[in-house]
Amino acid sequence: MNEIPARYSDWFENNRRILETAYVSHEEPWRQSGMSGPEDRWVSLRKPVADCIERSGSFLDIGCANGYLLECILRWTAELGLTIEPYGLDLSEKLVGMAKERLPKYAENFFVGNGFTWLPPRRFDYVRTDLVYVPLELEREYVDFLLENHLTDEGRLLVPNYAEGLELKGELFPDGYPTSYLEERLGQVGIEAERFMEGYDTIKGRRMKVAVIARQENHATA
């Protein structure tokens, strides 16, 4: 089991408080899940995550917020004839409560915890997370932990970067470490992606990229 280094104990708590306060101040479900602007912008930057799903199975969203991404994943994959069992994890008990209300059928599938240390009750076919959820120096350890403990043998880790090509240090939350170029960053920490899916936000002219990371290709070094 991972342990949070003492120097970062406040880092996670500060981010939980900042994001929870920001998200619950809005009414639109996509704003409660971290996306500003109209819903079309949400779709353009989030649907590529669903496009990475190629088969029916279980899906864990780490940093699930109010559960809106999972709700959309269920709809978008159903349109392709796929059946997804959704699970969610978030640092915020308040946001997890909102997710349970949004998807009451799956209320028992939502958990409060830190993805860096949380051990799941089962393994999943797909897990989505962001590198920005952990400090820069912990990114490789975080990815290894998920590959080792969260994915099935044939599972895929989906790592999106919603601001591909941009320099946003400090704009997401204080002391955050956003990735500017996802493929480059994964290479720096020794993680091999199977493929990438891309999207584009026409409103702000912002690109996004999702890395699809196969457990089997990286497990030997995890």
Structure, described:
The protein is an alpha/beta fold. The chain has seven helices and seven strands, in the order H-H-E-H-E-H-E-E-H-E-H-E-E-H. It has helices at 9-24, 39-51, 68-78, 93-102, 139-149, 182-188, 215-218; strands at residues 57-62, 84-90, 110-112, 124-128, 151-164, 195-201, 206-214. It has a seven-stranded mixed beta sheet with strand order 3-2-1-4-5-7-6, sandwiched between helices. Helix 3 links the parallel strand 1 (57-62) and strand 2 (84-90). The longest helix is centred in the N-terminal third of the chain and has 16 residues, at 9-24.
According to CATH, what is the topology? Rossmann fold
The strands making up the biggest β-sheet line up spatially as: 3-2-1-4-5-7-6
**Beta-strand content:** 15-25%
Q: Give me the CATH architecture, please.
A: 3-Layer(aba) Sandwich
Helix content range of the residues, please? 25-40%
Radius of gyration based on Cα positions: 16 Å
Low-confidence stretches: none
**What would CATH call the homologous superfamily?**
Vaccinia Virus protein VP39
As for the number of domains, it is 1
Q: Choose one word for the global shape.
A: globular
Largest sheet: 7 strands, mixed
User: Tally the helices: what do you get?
Assistant: 7
Please identify the top-level CATH class: Alpha Beta
- Gap between N and C termini, in Å? 13 Å
Instruction: Give me the strand/helix succession.
Output: HHEHEHEEHEHEEH
Oligomeric state of shown chains? single chain
| Structural class by sheet pairing and helices | alpha/beta
Average of the residue pLDDT scores:
91
